[in-house]
Design goal:
3 copies of one chain form a homotrimer. Chain A has a single domain, classed as Roll (Thiol Ester Dehydrase, Chain A). Chain A starts with 19 loop residues before the first strand and ends with a strand. In chain A, 20% of the residues lie in helices and 31% in strands. Chain A is an alpha+beta fold.
């Protein structure tokens, strides 16, 4: 084992179909992470904000914000999957399992489920299925993402291309509703909105109104907190000479800001149950102000539950572009350059019952 | 309940005298918040810094810094009270109750106790009495603040004007000294200063010497931590086109910095017991360096206590202006533009006994 | 005790040989501090990241990162030792004792062990031996540092010069290996590298490859977290008119970044056992990107341990200067201006056994 000690990251030709990767650096998620997450995003959803509120709906205490759990799992995978990534292309089939609580320790492992070399032979797309588990080996989150990864050697032979079949959305019957959850004691005033599941109409669009300006220190601190060590977020010395001339914001931070902004209009969407799909359609940089709007794509009842329903949402985030007129892709599916995120996900919301 | 889902905030004509408002989003205050508060303010008071010190004076552990408790209560109220505020005009009658400890969950409710339309008919002043309580419904903090709020409709009729009578200060007999507090074991060396209650003279002025430069990331992170979502602090895209061309610092962050700076000169003022009055007399912005000085306005013994006394202090904070010559308002009460805060509050300090 | 209340800090002539100083403001180190430390440094060592990992090697939970413990102890000492320091000249004989865990409270005391006036009679060098202890009075860390401190009065008489004998390194027999530590369950995959103690060669050099750009908000937040109140880090209003025209980064933050970067290449160096010596050879500022490389100076077995060995490392950090060619001092010992840190320390690493 003598020889270079530094991890160069995996290149496209290092991945093979069916490969299983146990990721390094388990992580205990604590009240400290929760505080920093609120400090960096301004999230105001009641459930992850207060033990008292969580206990009023049957949980032992405030669960970790779903997206904080997502970032913590994602962060484990970067050193193996995306250190040499050119772009984080998309997410699908993301399903949140048991809630994560402060003090829980997570690990993550990934399986390579798809590979496709690009026609330029310089890069390829790697599809991985990642599973994050807690210290009891319960699944906290599993999801698929695909990234464009550089090849080490353009001449390296291409694997047989396989693009996995990915579901349009996580099936409602597969959503995990926390076992002990009982919304009979859910306080709408404390929740922050009088609007319940019944009040949202199919196709309804909501402008979340507020904006949040990005700072270098904020996005780097968030990304470091998740121990996501992708180089493009941290090194102005090299990025200053790169494609954009500046550090790139971790796309997950944009997802978190969009979700935090969405509290104004969706305050009782107390939990993200699934990430059906998502794309970072343009990069964001320090100084940009992030706005967001949402559309209700679907509504669904859940098996055996009358207190909680599902809303499938599409949240689009923009930069330096208010969302009163709901900007999105044009008829050809092309996004204007000030749209940065298009996320399709399913939330749980209190029903009138 | 169909219809717009986004909270537009209350306008002046939405408030009525006697109205009671339960604020949304309860908040568990944790060791994570404590760490971030120290990281953002540099506060060095011994009591909220160490369980060991707190236990040496009879408390079960380090209480939450009084101003962190204040910001957490204040943060609850913003969405209902000051989302459409033009200015946060003042505070009075602020009384800290039972200490807050990590793990406690707070909620806040407010009562409208005064209303007065301004002569321009475009804005009005709203006076609210806010009470913050812990999960046992014990009062953690109650205070009055008044804000100038925009009217939705200039033509809306004005309510009968009522400006509440507000006390000059919180009466010493009304101050809450934590029940178990016993300063016999108070270690002056660990406390950080040899100066005790007896050593401070009426009218004495103290230059706190040090300065702290404001950064966008710091004030936004502090303000988000408190879940204070007032727009002016976060959105450069709109504020860049506004009055000041930049984001405004949350006034409470300036109070915290002034208090943290005051540790150099007032290290044994281990607790704020009351905020008698306070005004943000000029705005602050990123890049400004905050300085502070204090004057001893009054000294008082406390009923049944020989180990602890009260000092009524006035702390003035400036920007880019050292305080060796104690800058303040002129004879006409007008403040120079580099004075930003004038705060009248009462601290508890160890006595020789 | 009437009179000035503000601490002016000690000047060179205020120190005397053998003087013992108990430092103020004890500090409970919490999970909140841990989160913020990870958020500000991006550290990815497995042991301080996860309770589950720590428990797999016999510890009750994740210990506080050694450097976070160092900064917390160091922070206690600043108000007494280095408030009037011109420069932090060096460290030696730093030995980590019992691990620090979240919830532990530290205090620090220092003894003056050396004094030497400089020939200009305007400054002098003060050598202090500092001991940080937990609430059970167990030693967490002890080390020597020396600082150049201004004189209040150039004419004040010089003390007899005494420069203490300092060891070249902490003896391997004196290193503290945590009592319960048992590396038989150490998981190399979770640890983040296949490389163990046996794999590192004497004289081996490792380029840690990655870079981290400094931001004002990050270094100030880190330094405030440690309650290190040295003025040069915080006040742009005065520093803008000073030597460098800007705020100076706390050298300890650079040490932390260098250690965090070193995880890429030294991931199984799970603990710092000693700081043999170290110098901040040039200042760093916001905007600089920090890189690092390390050299293996010595390898040592430890008494009665076959599962863990010691590596004595030299880690050099640079600014805006990648380290593939291992920059360092020239033959005359002079450092190029883009080298900022030269640190000699001893880590513990898993052995094949």
């Amino acid at each position: 084992m003598n020889g270079p000690k530094t991890n160069p990251g995996n290149f496209f030709e290092d991945f093979r179909l069916g490969q299983e990767i146990q990721h390094a650096v388990p992580r205990t998620v604590t009240e400290g992470d929760v505080a920093l997450y609120i400090g960096l995003t301004g999230s105001r959803f009641a459930l992850p904000s207060a033990d008292s509120f969580a206990q009023s709906v049957g949980l032992p205490g405030a669960p970790i914000d779903d997206l904080l759990a997502f970032h913590m799992v994602f962060g484990r995978t970067v050193a193996d999957i995306s250190l040499n990534a050119v772009a984080n292309l998309g997410y699908a089939a993301g399903r949140f399992g048991v809630p994560l609580f402060p003090g829980d320790s997570i690990t993550a492992r990934s399986t390579v489920i798809g590979l496709k070399e690009n026609s330029n032979r310089e890069t390829g797309v790697v599809y991985v299925h990642t599973v994050g588990t807690n210290q009891a080996e319960e699944v906290v989150l599993d999801y698929v993402r695909w990234v464009m990864v550089r090849k080490r050697d353009k001449a390296a032979p291409a694997p047989d291309p396989l693009v996995p079949q990915l579901p349009d959305k996580v099936a409602y019957a597969d959503l995990d509703v926390p076992l002990d959850l009982d919304l009979s004691g859910y306080d709408l005033v404390l929740g922050g909105s009088p609007h319940l599941w019944e009040d949202y109409a199919l196709g309804e669009k909501i402008d979340h109104v507020d904006g949040m300006t990005l700072e270098e220190s904020d996005h780097m601190t968030a990304t470091r907190l998740y121990q996501n060590n992708a180089k493009v977020h941290f090194n102005q010395h090299t990025e200053g000479q790169g494609r954009f001339g500046r550090r790139l914001i971790y796309g997950g931070h944009i997802i978190s800001l969009a979700r935090a902004l969405s509290c104004n209009g969706l305050a009782n969407a107390f939990k993200i149950a699934a990430i059906n799909g998502g794309r970072h359609v343009n990069p964001s940089f320090a100084g940009d102000t992030i706005y967001a709007w949402s559309e209700v794509l679907e509504k669904a009842e859940l098996p055996d539950r009358r207190d909680v329903g599902a809303l499938r949402l599409r949240t689009i985030a923009t930069k330096d572009r208010p969302c009163h007129d709901f900007p999105g892709p044009d008829a050809a599916g092309k996004y204007p350059e000030n749209v940065v995120l298009d996320l399709d996900y399913t939330v749980l919301m209190k029903r009138r019952g």
